[in-house]
Amino acid sequence: MKKIVLTGAAGRLGSYLREPLTKLCDELVSTDIKDDVGTLYAGETYMQADLADFAAMDKVIEGADMVVHMGAFVDEGPFEQLLGPNFVGSYNVWEAASKHGVRRVVYGSSIHAVGMYPKNEFIDTEVAHRPDTFYGLAKCFTEDLGRMYWEKRGLESVHMRILSCAQVNNARALGSWLSYDDLIQLVTRCIETPVTGFAVIYGVSDNDRAPVDNSKASFLGYRPKDNAEQFAEEILANEPPMDPHDPNHMCHGGPFAGVDLGNSGLAGMNVVDDRKEN
């Protein structure tokens, strides 16, 4: 491929994707709202752009073969705060991609699109949306947007419902963990699979306790290697028993399922900012 665009390049997950993506194309255009992303890799350029600005995204995406869309406001917040980056931003990415003949958009969706399902329900990629927050609602919107652009305009998209791509430091993560190596493999498979149409896949490692079913997305060839069970003994020895009546513990969305709409879900999570420095 000649050109791949990565949105959200300054984010934690984006920091791990930048270098691998340079190996899949002649030119990686990384973009974010921040001033810069530090030292660039060989074959990488940076363009500062606001997802909510169609003209800016139109310029960034022109000439791209594929877009890896990871940019967003990555927490629950007031609807007005998410409207620009998470709702309008997704429209701008798909509309610009369609305008410029992009082949496929690979999207960083989330378990929060289905976060209100009870965790003891082993859900697959075809369950109906049950968002736990405005943040999850934005993921539902973008998944539906992707399906519509595929069916109306032939623009392929793969929507990666990421569970928790962060260090394993709580009991929920024993099932929801997505390692950075498996994230890279997942994105690579979403790019390299010859034909995808519209597809949904859960972003999760090969955890013994994984609460989701990816069998209907097996054609993407994603075969995770890592397993959070290696952390189980230490994690479970240091955490009190979970309350089966508490949505924080009982629902797929974890802390996002337990907060009131508009309130931070990340505030109840001990996410370590271990972004990759180059």
TrEMBL record:
| SUPFAM superfamilies, per the entry | NAD(P)-binding Rossmann-fold domains
The NAD-dependent epimerase/dehydratase domain, residue ranges:
4-162
At the top level, the lineage of the source is Bacteria
> Which molecular function terms from Gene Ontology are attached?
uronate dehydrogenase activity
Q: Does the keyword NAD apply?
A: yes
Keywords, A to Z?
Answer: NAD, Oxidoreductase
Q: Tell me, what's a Pfam family for it?
A: Epimerase
Q: Which residues are listed as membrane-spanning?
A: none
Note the InterPro entries from the entry: Epimerase_deHydtase, NAD(P)-bd_dom_sf
- Enzyme class, first EC level, given as a word: oxidoreductase
Listed EC numbers: 1.1.1.203
Asked whether the keyword S-adenosyl-L-methionine is assigned, the reply is no
For this chain, the family text in UniProt reads: Belongs to the NAD(P)-dependent epimerase/dehydratase family.
Query: What is the protein name given in its UniProt record?
Result: Uronate dehydrogenase
